[in-house]
Predict the 3D structure of the following.
Amino acid sequence: MLNMQQATVKFADSVALNGLTLSVEEGKVFGLLGPNGAGKTTLIRSLMGLQHLSEGSIRLFGDMLPGSASSRTLIGYMPQLYAIYDQLTVRENVRFFAELYSVPSALINDRVDELLHMTELDNKADAILHTLSGGMKRRAMMATALVHKPRLLILDEPTAGVDPILRIKFWQWFRKLCDQGTSILVTTHHINEAEQCDDIVFLRAGTMIGHGTPQQLMDEQQVDNLDQVFIRLAEQTEVQA
Ligand SMILES: Nc1ncnc2c1ncn2[C@@H]1O[C@H](COP(=O)(O)OP(=O)(O)O)[C@@H](O)[C@H]1O
Ligand SMILES: [Mg+2]
């Protein structure tokens, strides 16, 4: 599904991605983990064609990026910052994205209802976005990102600033979506959360310092949680963070 070769992004005074080579298969919940400034958003923006690589290449669904507009409809994207219309209701927002993605109009109502139900926003469907809590806005953003039934859902820090109960729900939704055929690529700086992933990559200062299943990584480092794995890997790697 995703193949990166030596992907590098340089800014004037920093290297946000430093020669990342990585393959991710379809049908998984894939976690991209690392502290603030590790390069997670830069990697995702590169996948979305919003950030040019300085060196290297990325293939997504076989297409060399920046890919065709048609390949982008395979992807649902939930950015880190709020990207949703504050003055529209929840339902209007989801409908707007459905139309943007050319979901056939006969299907839109059912699709919107289904997503509002899944994200437990049924009783907020007609509320104006700016009246909602941060967690509700994030749920609404996830609904907009799923409205065209993407093959891959990319979420950048969906659980940042979200209460612990909703964080658990988000991970349950990811698993359910994955079981139903939507692959998930999720970033988080809450490293322990990612024990639920099928496959994870640790990023630090633009460099990949670990890759494997959570259990493999914990076994290799002989620790029992992912925070400890990250600390061990960071100690073993010569990276200027
Ligand atoms: N547009 C930009 N211009 C200059 N530097 C940037 C830009 N975007 C990101 N960076 C830098 O790249 C590094 C990685 O940032 P980012 O990808 O946002 O990390 P993360 O999402 O893991 O917190 C940081 O040092 C950040 O300051
Ligand atoms: Mg980020």
